[in-house]
Amino acid sequence: MQALRIRTLMRVAAVAAALALGGLAAQAQPGPDRHGAPPDMMEAGPFGGHLGHLLDLANATDAQRSQIEAIFKAARQDLAGQRDAGRQLREQWVALFAATNVDAVAIESVRAQMSAQHDAASKRMSQAGIDAARVLTPEQRGKIAEAVKKHPARMGGRQPG
Q1: Is residue 70 within 8 Å of residue 131, measured between CB atoms?
Q2: Domain that holds residue 122
Q3: Within a 10 A sphere around the Cβ of 144, how many other Cβ atoms?
Q4: Under a CB-based contact definition with an 8 Å cutoff, are residues 43 and 93 in contact?
Q5: What element of type H or E holds 95?
Q6: Closest by Cα among 123, 111, 121 to 81
Q7: Is the pLDDT of residue 150 over 80?
Q8: Could you tell me if residue 38 is inside a domain?
Q9: How many whole angstroms from its chain centre is CA 137?
Q10: For residues 30 and 95, what is the distance between their CA atoms, to the nearest angstrom?
Q11: What is the C-alpha to C-alpha distance for residues 96 and 63, in angstroms, rounded to an integer?
């Protein structure tokens, strides 16, 4: 009987550790804590804080720059309300994790809510990117695409590997 209890406790501890690592990894990923979008997206959309540089490379006109800046500003404003919701979800996750009895179903529910919030933010920023792309000519978009291909880490992307 004692051995069964120890094995059960070890399983619970292993599940709790896995959930903790998964939760911490999820928290380490850009997410709802920055208005619901990754930090690089919050700066200037899918190109990180490099949008101005990319628009320089594309020889964007002042009118195009103004339109694109307005597009991303509107997206950031749309996502601003997610900050408090994201904070509440994180606090809820931490409380569930620290509870005497680990409720895997409740933790999964919060994780799913956090994931849905991040997905909504990602979708909004993607739409802003589409709207911005429509402001540029195909040639300008090609120049930006080449720059992003050459330096994905600098442009808010990740290096393969």
Answers
A1: no
A2: 2-150
A3: 23
A4: no
A5: helix 82-98
A6: 121
A7: yes
A8: yes
A9: 28
A10: 21
A11: 50
Q: Pick from 51, 46, 50: which is nearest to 65 by CA?
A: 51
Residue 143, in any domain of the structure: yes
In a domain, 70, yes or no: yes
Number of folded domains that form the chain: 1
pLDDT digits (tens, 9 = 90+) for 46-75: 566 678 888 999 999 999 999 999 999 999
The answer to whether position 17 is within a domain reads yes
Range of lowest pLDDT (42-51, 52-61, 112-121, 142-151): 42-51
pLDDT for residue 84 = 81
Q: Is 92 exposed, middle or buried (0-12, 13-18, 19+ CB in 10 A)?
A: middle
DSSP letter string over 16-60?
HHHHHHHHHHHHHSS-GGGTTS-HHHHHHTBTGGGHHHHHHHTT-
Q: What is the pTM of this model?
A: 0.61
